[in-house]
Amino acid sequence: MILLSFIVLIPFLSALILGVIYLYDPNKPREKLYATIGVTAPAISATIALVIEAKLLSMDASTVFHYTLFEWIHIGKFQIELAFMADRLTAVMLFFITFIGTLIHLYASGYMKGDSGYGKFFSYFNLFMGSMLLLVLADNPIIMFIGWELVGLSSYLLISFYHQEYANVTAGNKAFILNRIGDFGFIIGLVVLFISLEGYGYTFEAIEANIGLIDHPTLTIIAILLFVGAMGKSAQIPLFVWLPDAMAGPTPVSALIHAATMVTAGVYMVARFSFLYNDTPDIGEFIAIIGASTALLGAIIASFQNDIKKILAYSTMSQLGYMFIAVGLGAYSSGIFHVFTHAFFKALLFMGAGAIIIALHHEQNIYKMGSLKNKLPWVFIPMLIATLAISGIPPFAGFFSKDAILITAYSSEHYTIWAMGTITAFLTAYYMFRLLFVVFLAPSIRDHKVEPLANSMIVPLIILAVGSATAGLLGIPEALGGSNLFASFVALPDKPLHILHSTEYYLSALNVALALLGTALAYKLFVRRIHEPLNNSVWRYVVVNKFYIDEIYTFFIVKPLLLLSKFLLYFVDGKIINNIINLTVYSYARMGITFASFQNGKVRYYAFYILVGVSFISTSMLILLGGF
Protein backbone atom coordinates (compact mmCIF):
# COMPACT_ATOMS: atom_id res chain seq x y z
CA MET A 1 0.00 0.00 0.00
CA ILE A 2 1.75 3.11 -1.29
CA LEU A 3 -0.12 5.31 1.20
CA LEU A 4 2.19 4.02 3.92
CA SER A 5 5.17 5.73 2.32
CA PHE A 6 3.27 9.02 1.98
CA ILE A 7 2.63 9.15 5.74
CA VAL A 8 6.38 9.20 6.35
CA LEU A 9 7.64 11.08 3.31
CA ILE A 10 5.31 14.09 3.56
CA PRO A 11 6.68 15.29 6.96
CA PHE A 12 10.25 14.66 5.79
CA LEU A 13 9.65 16.54 2.54
CA SER A 14 8.01 19.45 4.37
CA ALA A 15 10.97 19.59 6.78
CA LEU A 16 13.34 19.83 3.79
CA ILE A 17 11.26 22.55 2.10
CA LEU A 18 10.99 24.56 5.31
CA GLY A 19 14.72 24.25 5.91
CA VAL A 20 15.61 25.40 2.38
CA ILE A 21 13.26 28.39 2.55
CA TYR A 22 14.61 29.40 5.95
CA LEU A 23 18.27 29.06 4.93
CA TYR A 24 17.66 31.03 1.72
CA ASP A 25 16.79 34.13 3.74
CA PRO A 26 16.56 33.47 7.50
CA ASN A 27 15.82 37.11 8.32
CA LYS A 28 12.77 37.49 6.08
CA PRO A 29 9.49 37.09 8.03
CA ARG A 30 7.47 34.29 6.46
CA GLU A 31 5.55 33.05 9.50
CA LYS A 32 2.31 32.45 7.60
CA LEU A 33 4.09 30.37 4.95
CA TYR A 34 6.07 28.40 7.54
CA ALA A 35 2.97 27.73 9.62
CA THR A 36 0.92 26.66 6.59
CA ILE A 37 3.53 24.14 5.41
CA GLY A 38 4.35 23.05 8.95
CA VAL A 39 0.74 22.33 9.96
CA THR A 40 -0.50 20.98 6.61
CA ALA A 41 2.09 18.18 6.40
CA PRO A 42 1.11 16.33 9.62
CA ALA A 43 -2.57 17.01 8.83
CA ILE A 44 -2.20 15.16 5.51
CA SER A 45 -0.41 12.31 7.28
CA ALA A 46 -3.24 12.20 9.85
CA THR A 47 -5.83 11.96 7.08
CA ILE A 48 -3.98 9.07 5.42
CA ALA A 49 -3.60 7.37 8.81
CA LEU A 50 -7.39 7.53 9.28
CA VAL A 51 -7.90 5.92 5.86
CA ILE A 52 -5.53 3.08 6.78
CA GLU A 53 -7.17 2.60 10.18
CA ALA A 54 -10.61 2.43 8.56
CA LYS A 55 -9.38 -0.20 6.11
CA LEU A 56 -7.86 -2.29 8.90
CA LEU A 57 -11.06 -1.97 10.94
CA SER A 58 -13.05 -3.46 8.08
CA MET A 59 -10.67 -6.42 7.66
CA ASP A 60 -9.56 -9.41 9.69
CA ALA A 61 -7.47 -8.65 12.80
CA SER A 62 -4.45 -10.42 11.27
CA THR A 63 -4.37 -8.16 8.20
CA VAL A 64 -1.05 -6.42 7.60
CA PHE A 65 -0.39 -3.86 4.86
CA HIS A 66 3.06 -3.72 3.25
CA TYR A 67 4.91 -1.39 0.92
CA THR A 68 8.54 -1.54 -0.20
CA LEU A 69 10.09 1.74 -1.29
CA PHE A 70 13.38 0.23 -2.47
CA GLU A 71 15.99 -2.39 -1.65
CA TRP A 72 18.64 -0.80 0.51
CA ILE A 73 21.24 -3.51 1.23
CA HIS A 74 21.66 -6.94 -0.40
CA ILE A 75 24.84 -8.84 0.44
CA GLY A 76 24.52 -12.62 0.16
CA LYS A 77 21.69 -13.68 2.44
CA PHE A 78 21.63 -10.28 4.12
CA GLN A 79 18.85 -8.22 2.61
CA ILE A 80 17.37 -5.02 4.05
CA GLU A 81 14.62 -3.11 2.31
CA LEU A 82 13.29 0.34 3.08
CA ALA A 83 9.86 -1.12 3.62
CA PHE A 84 6.82 -0.20 5.65
CA MET A 85 4.16 -2.29 7.37
CA ALA A 86 0.92 -1.39 9.12
CA ASP A 87 -1.09 -3.66 11.36
CA ARG A 88 -3.57 -2.65 14.04
CA LEU A 89 -0.87 -1.75 16.56
CA THR A 90 0.71 0.52 13.96
CA ALA A 91 -2.68 2.06 13.18
CA VAL A 92 -3.24 3.06 16.82
CA MET A 93 0.21 4.65 17.02
CA LEU A 94 -0.27 6.43 13.69
CA PHE A 95 -3.60 7.86 14.78
CA PHE A 96 -2.50 9.64 17.91
CA ILE A 97 0.98 10.57 16.60
CA THR A 98 -0.44 12.33 13.56
CA PHE A 99 -3.68 13.67 15.08
CA ILE A 100 -2.18 15.02 18.29
CA GLY A 101 0.97 16.00 16.41
CA THR A 102 -1.14 18.15 14.08
CA LEU A 103 -2.80 19.87 17.04
CA ILE A 104 0.60 20.55 18.61
CA HIS A 105 1.82 22.00 15.30
CA LEU A 106 -1.24 24.26 15.17
CA TYR A 107 -0.60 25.32 18.76
CA ALA A 108 3.08 25.96 17.97
CA SER A 109 2.13 28.31 15.13
CA GLY A 110 0.75 30.69 17.75
CA TYR A 111 3.18 29.92 20.55
CA MET A 112 6.29 30.62 18.44
CA LYS A 113 4.90 33.81 16.90
CA GLY A 114 7.58 36.47 16.64
CA ASP A 115 10.46 34.04 17.18
CA SER A 116 13.43 34.70 14.90
CA GLY A 117 13.86 30.95 14.32
CA TYR A 118 10.23 30.33 13.33
CA GLY A 119 11.02 28.57 10.05
CA LYS A 120 13.88 26.57 11.52
CA PHE A 121 11.63 25.45 14.36
CA PHE A 122 8.99 24.01 12.03
CA SER A 123 11.66 22.33 9.92
CA TYR A 124 12.97 20.54 13.01
CA PHE A 125 9.41 19.88 14.20
CA ASN A 126 8.41 18.11 11.01
CA LEU A 127 11.68 16.18 10.98
CA PHE A 128 10.69 14.97 14.46
CA MET A 129 7.27 13.85 13.20
CA GLY A 130 8.70 12.06 10.18
CA SER A 131 11.30 10.29 12.32
CA MET A 132 8.68 8.94 14.74
CA LEU A 133 6.45 7.81 11.88
CA LEU A 134 9.40 6.02 10.27
CA LEU A 135 10.07 4.25 13.57
CA VAL A 136 6.45 3.10 13.89
CA LEU A 137 5.93 2.07 10.27
CA ALA A 138 9.24 0.23 9.89
CA ASP A 139 8.96 -3.26 8.42
CA ASN A 140 12.15 -4.45 10.12
CA PRO A 141 14.31 -3.54 13.14
CA ILE A 142 17.03 -1.87 11.05
CA ILE A 143 14.63 0.71 9.63
CA MET A 144 13.09 1.06 13.09
CA PHE A 145 16.55 1.84 14.44
CA ILE A 146 17.05 4.56 11.82
CA GLY A 147 13.83 6.20 12.97
CA TRP A 148 14.92 5.59 16.57
CA GLU A 149 18.16 7.52 15.99
CA LEU A 150 16.51 10.29 13.97
CA VAL A 151 14.08 10.84 16.84
CA GLY A 152 17.09 11.29 19.12
CA LEU A 153 18.68 13.75 16.69
CA SER A 154 15.46 15.74 16.36
CA SER A 155 15.03 15.95 20.12
CA TYR A 156 18.60 17.22 20.45
CA LEU A 157 17.97 19.96 17.88
CA LEU A 158 14.73 21.05 19.53
CA ILE A 159 15.79 20.80 23.18
CA SER A 160 18.80 22.99 22.45
CA PHE A 161 16.82 25.19 20.06
CA TYR A 162 17.73 28.34 22.00
CA HIS A 163 21.40 27.45 21.81
CA GLN A 164 22.51 30.95 22.73
CA GLU A 165 22.07 29.91 26.36
CA TYR A 166 24.62 27.43 27.72
CA ALA A 167 22.06 25.61 29.90
CA ASN A 168 19.95 24.74 26.85
CA VAL A 169 22.91 23.29 24.98
CA THR A 170 23.84 21.28 28.08
CA ALA A 171 20.28 19.93 28.28
CA GLY A 172 20.37 18.92 24.61
CA ASN A 173 23.74 17.22 25.06
CA LYS A 174 22.48 15.40 28.13
CA ALA A 175 19.46 14.02 26.29
CA PHE A 176 21.56 13.02 23.30
CA ILE A 177 24.32 11.30 25.30
CA LEU A 178 22.04 9.39 27.67
CA ASN A 179 20.03 8.15 24.71
CA ARG A 180 23.23 7.01 23.03
CA ILE A 181 24.00 4.92 26.12
CA GLY A 182 20.63 3.20 25.82
CA ASP A 183 20.96 2.89 22.05
CA PHE A 184 24.29 1.11 22.41
CA GLY A 185 22.49 -1.72 24.20
CA PHE A 186 19.68 -1.60 21.65
CA ILE A 187 21.94 -1.99 18.63
CA ILE A 188 23.94 -4.81 20.27
CA GLY A 189 20.62 -6.57 20.85
CA LEU A 190 19.73 -6.16 17.17
CA VAL A 191 23.12 -7.55 16.13
CA VAL A 192 22.71 -10.63 18.36
CA LEU A 193 19.20 -11.12 16.98
CA PHE A 194 20.44 -10.88 13.40
CA ILE A 195 23.30 -13.34 13.97
CA SER A 196 20.91 -15.77 15.65
CA LEU A 197 18.48 -15.68 12.70
CA GLU A 198 20.93 -15.31 9.83
CA GLY A 199 19.36 -16.56 6.63
CA TYR A 200 15.80 -16.66 7.94
CA GLY A 201 14.85 -13.05 7.17
CA TYR A 202 14.93 -9.93 9.29
CA THR A 203 11.45 -8.45 8.99
CA PHE A 204 9.28 -8.41 12.11
CA GLU A 205 7.08 -11.11 10.62
CA ALA A 206 10.08 -13.32 9.77
CA ILE A 207 11.56 -12.83 13.24
CA GLU A 208 8.28 -13.78 14.90
CA ALA A 209 7.94 -16.87 12.70
CA ASN A 210 11.47 -18.08 13.51
CA ILE A 211 11.93 -16.89 17.09
CA GLY A 212 11.66 -20.49 18.26
CA LEU A 213 15.01 -21.28 16.60
CA ILE A 214 16.87 -19.16 19.17
CA ASP A 215 17.86 -20.79 22.47
CA HIS A 216 16.45 -19.31 25.67
CA PRO A 217 19.72 -17.82 27.06
CA THR A 218 20.25 -15.93 23.81
CA LEU A 219 16.63 -14.77 23.81
CA THR A 220 17.13 -13.44 27.33
CA ILE A 221 20.22 -11.48 26.27
CA ILE A 222 18.37 -9.99 23.29
CA ALA A 223 15.34 -9.06 25.40
CA ILE A 224 17.37 -7.26 28.05
CA LEU A 225 19.56 -5.43 25.50
CA LEU A 226 16.55 -4.16 23.58
CA PHE A 227 14.99 -2.94 26.81
CA VAL A 228 18.17 -1.01 27.63
CA GLY A 229 17.36 1.06 24.54
CA ALA A 230 13.83 1.58 25.85
CA MET A 231 15.20 2.74 29.22
CA GLY A 232 16.96 5.61 27.48
CA LYS A 233 14.28 6.55 24.99
CA SER A 234 11.40 6.29 27.46
CA ALA A 235 13.25 7.75 30.48
CA GLN A 236 13.21 4.79 32.86
CA ILE A 237 15.52 4.17 35.80
CA PRO A 238 18.50 4.64 35.54
CA LEU A 239 18.49 6.60 32.24
CA PHE A 240 15.70 9.05 33.09
CA VAL A 241 17.66 12.14 34.14
CA TRP A 242 17.58 13.72 30.68
CA LEU A 243 13.78 14.09 30.58
CA PRO A 244 13.31 16.96 33.09
CA ASP A 245 16.19 18.89 31.52
CA ALA A 246 14.51 18.51 28.13
CA MET A 247 12.14 21.27 29.29
CA ALA A 248 14.80 23.70 28.07
CA GLY A 249 13.19 23.58 24.63
CA PRO A 250 10.06 25.54 23.65
CA THR A 251 6.88 24.17 25.27
CA PRO A 252 5.45 22.72 22.01
CA VAL A 253 8.60 20.56 21.89
CA SER A 254 7.82 19.26 25.38
CA ALA A 255 4.25 18.46 24.31
CA LEU A 256 5.44 16.58 21.22
CA ILE A 257 8.15 14.65 23.08
CA HIS A 258 5.92 13.67 25.99
CA ALA A 259 2.67 12.95 24.17
CA ALA A 260 3.14 11.91 20.56
CA THR A 261 6.79 11.00 19.94
CA MET A 262 10.07 9.84 21.44
CA VAL A 263 9.18 8.70 24.97
CA THR A 264 6.43 6.39 23.68
CA ALA A 265 8.94 4.69 21.37
CA GLY A 266 10.26 2.35 24.07
CA VAL A 267 6.78 1.12 25.02
CA TYR A 268 5.90 0.61 21.35
CA MET A 269 9.14 -1.33 20.78
CA VAL A 270 8.38 -3.76 23.63
CA ALA A 271 4.83 -4.24 22.32
CA ARG A 272 6.15 -4.80 18.79
CA PHE A 273 8.50 -7.47 20.16
CA SER A 274 5.72 -9.00 22.29
CA PHE A 275 6.48 -12.44 20.82
CA LEU A 276 10.01 -12.11 22.22
CA TYR A 277 8.99 -10.92 25.69
CA ASN A 278 6.28 -13.56 26.00
CA ASP A 279 9.08 -16.13 25.68
CA THR A 280 11.19 -14.37 28.34
CA PRO A 281 8.80 -13.80 31.27
CA ASP A 282 11.67 -13.14 33.71
CA ILE A 283 12.76 -10.15 31.65
CA GLY A 284 9.13 -9.05 31.45
CA GLU A 285 8.91 -9.09 35.24
CA PHE A 286 12.16 -7.09 35.43
CA ILE A 287 10.64 -4.53 33.04
CA ALA A 288 7.57 -4.27 35.25
CA ILE A 289 9.71 -3.73 38.37
CA ILE A 290 11.69 -0.99 36.63
CA GLY A 291 8.39 0.55 35.49
CA ALA A 292 6.87 0.49 38.99
CA SER A 293 10.03 1.96 40.54
CA THR A 294 10.16 4.70 37.91
CA ALA A 295 6.46 5.48 38.36
CA LEU A 296 6.82 5.90 42.11
CA LEU A 297 10.08 7.86 41.94
CA GLY A 298 8.71 10.24 39.31
CA ALA A 299 5.54 10.85 41.34
CA ILE A 300 7.49 11.57 44.54
CA ILE A 301 9.79 14.08 42.83
CA ALA A 302 6.90 15.74 40.96
CA SER A 303 5.15 16.35 44.29
CA PHE A 304 7.93 18.75 45.36
CA GLN A 305 8.75 20.60 42.13
CA ASN A 306 7.87 24.27 41.62
CA ASP A 307 8.54 24.61 37.87
CA ILE A 308 5.28 23.89 36.05
CA LYS A 309 6.99 22.14 33.14
CA LYS A 310 9.21 20.01 35.37
CA ILE A 311 6.19 18.83 37.36
CA LEU A 312 4.71 17.61 34.09
CA ALA A 313 8.06 16.13 33.00
CA TYR A 314 8.31 13.96 36.11
CA SER A 315 4.64 13.14 35.63
CA THR A 316 5.44 11.76 32.18
CA MET A 317 8.27 9.70 33.61
CA SER A 318 5.82 8.31 36.18
CA GLN A 319 3.10 7.53 33.62
CA LEU A 320 5.63 5.80 31.38
CA GLY A 321 6.40 3.60 34.37
CA TYR A 322 2.75 2.50 34.36
CA MET A 323 3.03 1.60 30.68
CA PHE A 324 6.08 -0.56 31.32
CA ILE A 325 4.33 -2.31 34.19
CA ALA A 326 1.67 -3.35 31.69
CA VAL A 327 3.89 -4.49 28.83
CA GLY A 328 6.29 -6.15 31.26
CA LEU A 329 3.48 -8.29 32.68
CA GLY A 330 2.24 -9.20 29.21
CA ALA A 331 -0.75 -6.83 29.17
CA TYR A 332 0.35 -5.18 25.93
CA SER A 333 -3.12 -3.86 25.05
CA SER A 334 -3.38 -2.13 28.44
CA GLY A 335 0.07 -0.59 28.03
CA ILE A 336 -0.69 0.75 24.55
CA PHE A 337 -4.12 1.91 25.75
CA HIS A 338 -2.43 4.02 28.42
CA VAL A 339 -0.03 5.35 25.77
CA PHE A 340 -3.12 6.32 23.76
CA THR A 341 -5.07 8.06 26.54
CA HIS A 342 -1.92 9.62 28.01
CA ALA A 343 -1.20 11.28 24.67
CA PHE A 344 -4.41 13.32 24.93
CA PHE A 345 -4.19 14.56 28.50
CA LYS A 346 -0.42 15.01 28.59
CA ALA A 347 -0.38 17.03 25.36
CA LEU A 348 -3.19 19.12 26.84
CA LEU A 349 -1.34 19.65 30.12
CA PHE A 350 1.87 20.78 28.42
CA MET A 351 0.05 23.02 25.97
CA GLY A 352 -1.98 24.49 28.83
CA ALA A 353 1.23 25.08 30.76
CA GLY A 354 2.72 26.75 27.69
CA ALA A 355 -0.32 29.02 27.39
CA ILE A 356 0.12 30.05 31.04
CA ILE A 357 3.83 30.69 30.51
CA ILE A 358 3.11 32.90 27.49
CA ALA A 359 0.27 34.71 29.25
CA LEU A 360 2.51 35.47 32.26
CA HIS A 361 5.50 36.64 30.22
CA HIS A 362 7.47 33.36 30.54
CA GLU A 363 6.94 32.77 34.25
CA GLN A 364 7.25 29.06 35.14
CA ASN A 365 7.25 28.98 38.96
CA ILE A 366 3.75 27.93 40.07
CA TYR A 367 4.13 29.86 43.35
CA LYS A 368 4.45 33.08 41.35
CA MET A 369 1.13 32.45 39.63
CA GLY A 370 -2.26 32.05 41.34
CA SER A 371 -5.84 33.32 40.81
CA LEU A 372 -5.77 32.63 37.07
CA LYS A 373 -9.12 30.83 36.88
CA ASN A 374 -11.09 33.88 35.76
CA LYS A 375 -8.27 35.41 33.75
CA LEU A 376 -7.60 32.27 31.68
CA PRO A 377 -10.91 30.33 31.68
CA TRP A 378 -10.20 28.62 28.34
CA VAL A 379 -6.98 27.28 29.81
CA PHE A 380 -8.40 26.41 33.24
CA ILE A 381 -11.30 24.25 32.06
CA PRO A 382 -9.25 22.06 29.65
CA MET A 383 -6.49 21.68 32.26
CA LEU A 384 -9.06 20.70 34.87
CA ILE A 385 -10.32 17.95 32.54
CA ALA A 386 -6.77 16.78 31.85
CA THR A 387 -6.00 16.76 35.58
CA LEU A 388 -9.11 14.67 36.28
CA ALA A 389 -8.03 12.31 33.48
CA ILE A 390 -4.45 11.78 34.66
CA SER A 391 -5.63 11.43 38.26
CA GLY A 392 -7.83 8.48 37.34
CA ILE A 393 -11.19 10.06 38.19
CA PRO A 394 -14.03 8.33 36.33
CA PRO A 395 -15.24 8.58 33.63
CA PHE A 396 -12.23 10.46 32.28
CA ALA A 397 -9.67 8.72 30.07
CA GLY A 398 -6.95 7.92 32.59
CA PHE A 399 -9.34 6.05 34.89
CA PHE A 400 -9.87 3.19 32.45
CA SER A 401 -6.30 2.83 31.19
CA LYS A 402 -4.60 3.17 34.58
CA ASP A 403 -7.07 0.82 36.28
CA ALA A 404 -6.47 -1.84 33.64
CA ILE A 405 -2.74 -1.78 34.46
CA LEU A 406 -3.18 -1.97 38.24
CA ILE A 407 -5.75 -4.76 37.92
CA THR A 408 -3.28 -6.69 35.74
CA ALA A 409 -0.55 -6.32 38.38
CA TYR A 410 -2.92 -7.50 41.14
CA SER A 411 -4.39 -10.41 39.20
CA SER A 412 -0.93 -11.69 38.21
CA GLU A 413 -0.02 -11.75 41.93
CA HIS A 414 2.66 -9.10 41.63
CA TYR A 415 1.42 -7.43 44.78
CA THR A 416 4.49 -5.29 45.39
CA ILE A 417 4.24 -3.83 41.89
CA TRP A 418 0.50 -3.30 42.41
CA ALA A 419 1.12 -1.54 45.74
CA MET A 420 3.75 0.75 44.19
CA GLY A 421 1.37 1.59 41.35
CA THR A 422 -1.47 2.27 43.77
CA ILE A 423 0.63 4.62 45.89
CA THR A 424 1.67 6.35 42.67
CA ALA A 425 -2.00 6.82 41.80
CA PHE A 426 -2.53 8.68 45.09
CA LEU A 427 0.54 10.85 44.52
CA THR A 428 -0.50 11.58 40.92
CA ALA A 429 -3.79 13.09 42.06
CA TYR A 430 -2.00 14.99 44.80
CA TYR A 431 0.72 16.66 42.68
CA MET A 432 -1.53 17.35 39.71
CA PHE A 433 -4.23 19.02 41.79
CA ARG A 434 -1.49 20.83 43.70
CA LEU A 435 -0.44 22.32 40.37
CA LEU A 436 -4.01 23.14 39.37
CA PHE A 437 -5.00 24.67 42.72
CA VAL A 438 -1.85 26.76 43.14
CA VAL A 439 -1.97 28.11 39.58
CA PHE A 440 -5.68 28.79 39.22
CA LEU A 441 -7.34 28.96 42.66
CA ALA A 442 -4.80 29.98 45.31
CA PRO A 443 -4.49 33.71 46.06
CA SER A 444 -1.87 35.46 43.95
CA ILE A 445 1.02 37.38 45.43
CA ARG A 446 0.99 39.78 42.47
CA ASP A 447 -1.48 41.36 40.07
CA HIS A 448 -0.84 39.52 36.81
CA LYS A 449 -1.19 41.35 33.52
CA VAL A 450 -2.20 38.49 31.29
CA GLU A 451 -1.20 38.49 27.63
CA PRO A 452 -4.01 37.54 25.20
CA LEU A 453 -3.64 34.11 23.64
CA ALA A 454 -3.98 33.32 19.93
CA ASN A 455 -6.93 31.18 18.81
CA SER A 456 -4.43 28.71 17.38
CA MET A 457 -3.38 28.01 20.98
CA ILE A 458 -6.91 27.80 22.45
CA VAL A 459 -8.63 25.57 19.86
CA PRO A 460 -6.21 22.60 20.29
CA LEU A 461 -6.78 22.76 24.07
CA ILE A 462 -10.54 22.39 23.60
CA ILE A 463 -10.17 19.49 21.16
CA LEU A 464 -7.74 17.68 23.45
CA ALA A 465 -10.04 18.28 26.42
CA VAL A 466 -12.77 16.37 24.57
CA GLY A 467 -10.29 13.55 23.90
CA SER A 468 -9.12 13.51 27.52
CA ALA A 469 -12.72 13.17 28.65
CA THR A 470 -13.83 10.51 26.18
CA ALA A 471 -10.86 8.48 24.90
CA GLY A 472 -11.08 6.07 27.83
CA LEU A 473 -14.57 4.99 26.77
CA LEU A 474 -12.93 2.88 24.07
CA GLY A 475 -11.54 0.60 26.79
CA ILE A 476 -14.47 0.06 29.17
CA PRO A 477 -13.89 -3.43 30.65
CA GLU A 478 -16.47 -6.19 30.88
CA ALA A 479 -16.73 -5.68 34.64
CA LEU A 480 -18.19 -2.21 33.99
CA GLY A 481 -20.50 -3.37 31.21
CA GLY A 482 -18.21 -2.72 28.26
CA SER A 483 -16.40 -4.95 25.79
CA ASN A 484 -12.99 -3.21 25.74
CA LEU A 485 -13.17 -2.15 22.12
CA PHE A 486 -9.58 -0.94 22.19
CA ALA A 487 -8.11 -4.32 23.15
CA SER A 488 -10.36 -6.04 20.59
CA PHE A 489 -9.12 -3.75 17.86
CA VAL A 490 -5.39 -3.74 18.64
CA ALA A 491 -5.39 -7.57 18.95
CA LEU A 492 -2.07 -7.98 20.78
CA PRO A 493 -1.01 -11.33 22.31
CA ASP A 494 -1.92 -10.45 25.90
CA LYS A 495 -1.50 -12.96 28.68
CA PRO A 496 -4.92 -14.09 29.98
CA LEU A 497 -6.36 -12.19 32.94
CA HIS A 498 -7.91 -14.23 35.75
CA ILE A 499 -9.85 -12.04 38.18
CA LEU A 500 -13.38 -11.84 39.53
CA HIS A 501 -15.50 -8.85 38.58
CA SER A 502 -16.12 -8.20 42.28
CA THR A 503 -12.36 -7.89 42.83
CA GLU A 504 -12.16 -5.43 39.95
CA TYR A 505 -14.86 -3.33 41.61
CA TYR A 506 -12.97 -3.24 44.90
CA LEU A 507 -9.68 -2.33 43.19
CA SER A 508 -11.30 0.39 41.10
CA ALA A 509 -13.07 1.81 44.14
CA LEU A 510 -9.77 1.86 46.03
CA ASN A 511 -8.04 3.71 43.20
CA VAL A 512 -10.79 6.31 42.99
CA ALA A 513 -10.81 6.74 46.78
CA LEU A 514 -7.05 7.30 46.81
CA ALA A 515 -7.30 9.78 43.93
CA LEU A 516 -10.00 11.72 45.80
CA LEU A 517 -7.89 11.61 48.97
CA GLY A 518 -4.91 13.04 47.08
CA THR A 519 -7.15 15.75 45.64
CA ALA A 520 -8.54 16.62 49.07
CA LEU A 521 -5.06 16.79 50.57
CA ALA A 522 -3.88 19.12 47.81
CA TYR A 523 -6.95 21.33 48.34
CA LYS A 524 -6.35 21.54 52.08
CA LEU A 525 -2.65 22.34 51.73
CA PHE A 526 -2.56 24.71 48.77
CA VAL A 527 -5.82 26.41 47.90
CA ARG A 528 -5.59 29.01 50.67
CA ARG A 529 -1.79 29.34 50.64
CA ILE A 530 -0.11 32.35 49.11
CA HIS A 531 3.50 31.19 49.41
CA GLU A 532 5.19 27.84 49.04
CA PRO A 533 4.91 25.97 52.36
CA LEU A 534 8.14 26.26 54.31
CA ASN A 535 9.49 22.93 55.43
CA ASN A 536 13.18 22.48 56.01
CA SER A 537 13.08 18.78 56.81
CA VAL A 538 15.86 16.61 55.48
CA TRP A 539 13.32 14.57 53.48
CA ARG A 540 11.96 17.61 51.70
CA TYR A 541 15.44 18.92 51.01
CA VAL A 542 16.47 15.58 49.49
CA VAL A 543 13.35 15.26 47.32
CA VAL A 544 13.45 18.88 46.14
CA ASN A 545 16.97 18.13 44.94
CA LYS A 546 15.68 15.01 43.16
CA PHE A 547 17.48 12.59 45.48
CA TYR A 548 20.78 14.01 44.20
CA ILE A 549 20.72 11.46 41.40
CA ASP A 550 22.29 13.89 38.93
CA GLU A 551 24.99 14.70 41.47
CA ILE A 552 25.62 11.01 42.11
CA TYR A 553 25.99 10.37 38.38
CA THR A 554 28.28 13.38 38.10
CA PHE A 555 30.49 12.24 40.99
CA PHE A 556 30.74 8.53 40.16
CA ILE A 557 30.54 8.59 36.35
CA VAL A 558 31.02 12.01 34.78
CA LYS A 559 33.95 13.23 36.89
CA PRO A 560 35.94 9.96 36.64
CA LEU A 561 35.44 10.02 32.88
CA LEU A 562 36.58 13.64 32.76
CA LEU A 563 39.66 12.77 34.81
CA LEU A 564 40.37 9.83 32.52
CA SER A 565 39.91 12.09 29.49
CA LYS A 566 42.31 14.68 30.91
CA PHE A 567 44.84 11.96 31.74
CA LEU A 568 44.62 10.63 28.17
CA LEU A 569 44.76 14.13 26.71
CA TYR A 570 47.58 15.66 28.73
CA PHE A 571 49.71 12.66 29.69
CA VAL A 572 49.14 9.79 27.26
CA ASP A 573 48.51 11.93 24.20
CA GLY A 574 50.38 15.08 25.20
CA LYS A 575 53.52 13.56 26.66
CA ILE A 576 53.84 9.99 25.40
CA ILE A 577 52.25 9.89 21.94
CA ASN A 578 53.25 13.44 21.01
CA ASN A 579 56.84 12.82 22.15
CA ILE A 580 57.02 9.58 20.17
CA ILE A 581 55.75 11.42 17.08
CA ASN A 582 58.08 14.37 17.65
CA LEU A 583 61.05 12.03 18.20
CA THR A 584 60.20 10.16 15.01
CA VAL A 585 59.96 13.42 13.06
CA TYR A 586 63.23 14.65 14.58
CA SER A 587 64.95 11.35 13.76
CA TYR A 588 63.80 11.49 10.17
CA ALA A 589 64.97 15.08 9.94
CA ARG A 590 68.41 14.19 11.31
CA MET A 591 68.64 11.17 9.02
CA GLY A 592 67.76 13.43 6.11
CA ILE A 593 70.52 15.86 7.03
CA THR A 594 72.99 13.02 7.48
CA PHE A 595 72.21 11.38 4.16
CA ALA A 596 72.15 14.76 2.42
CA SER A 597 75.78 15.28 3.44
CA PHE A 598 76.72 12.30 1.25
CA GLN A 599 75.16 14.03 -1.76
CA ASN A 600 77.89 16.70 -2.02
CA GLY A 601 78.50 16.66 -5.80
CA LYS A 602 82.17 15.56 -5.55
CA VAL A 603 83.00 12.65 -7.91
CA ARG A 604 85.85 11.23 -5.78
CA TYR A 605 83.46 10.74 -2.86
CA TYR A 606 80.97 8.94 -5.11
CA ALA A 607 83.79 6.68 -6.42
CA PHE A 608 84.74 5.88 -2.84
CA TYR A 609 81.10 5.00 -1.99
CA ILE A 610 81.03 2.67 -4.99
CA LEU A 611 84.28 1.01 -3.96
CA VAL A 612 83.03 0.49 -0.39
CA GLY A 613 79.74 -0.87 -1.66
CA VAL A 614 81.33 -3.30 -4.12
CA SER A 615 83.82 -4.43 -1.48
CA PHE A 616 80.98 -5.06 1.03
CA ILE A 617 78.96 -7.03 -1.51
CA SER A 618 82.00 -9.06 -2.63
CA THR A 619 83.00 -9.85 0.95
CA SER A 620 79.44 -10.88 1.79
CA MET A 621 79.26 -13.18 -1.23
CA LEU A 622 82.58 -14.85 -0.36
CA ILE A 623 81.38 -15.46 3.21
CA LEU A 624 78.09 -16.95 1.99
CA LEU A 625 79.93 -19.20 -0.49
CA GLY A 626 82.39 -20.37 2.19
CA GLY A 627 85.40 -18.80 0.60
CA PHE A 628 87.10 -18.13 3.90
Structure description:
- With 628 residues, the chain is mainly alpha-helical.
- The chain has 2 domains: 3-544, no CATH class; 552-624.
- 71% of the residues lie in helices and 3% in strands.
- The chain contains 24 helices and 2 strands.
- It has a two-stranded antiparallel ribbon with strand order 1-2.
- A hairpin with a 2-residue loop joins strand 1 and strand 2 (78-86).
- Helix 3 runs antiparallel to helix 4 (118-137), helix 15 (332-359) runs antiparallel to helix 16 (377-390) and helix 15 (332-359) packs antiparallel against helix 17 (397-411).
- The chain is globular.
- It starts with a helix and ends with a helix.
Q: Which features would summarize this protein structure in a list?
A:
two-stranded antiparallel ribbon; mainly alpha; 628 residues; single chain
Q: Can you give the mean pLDDT?
A: 90
Q: Termini, distance in Å?
A: 89 Å
Profile the largest sheet. Answer: 2 strands, antiparallel
Main structural class: mainly alpha
Percentage of residues assigned to helices: over 70%
What count of domains describes the coordinates? 2
Strand content: under 5%
H-E order: HHEEHHHHHHHHHHHHHHHHHHHHHH
> How many strands appear in the DSSP assignment?
2
Widest sheet: strand order?
1-2
The low-confidence runs, each spanning 5 or more residues with pLDDT under 50, are none
Helix segment count? 24
- Shape label: globular
Radius of gyration: 30 Å
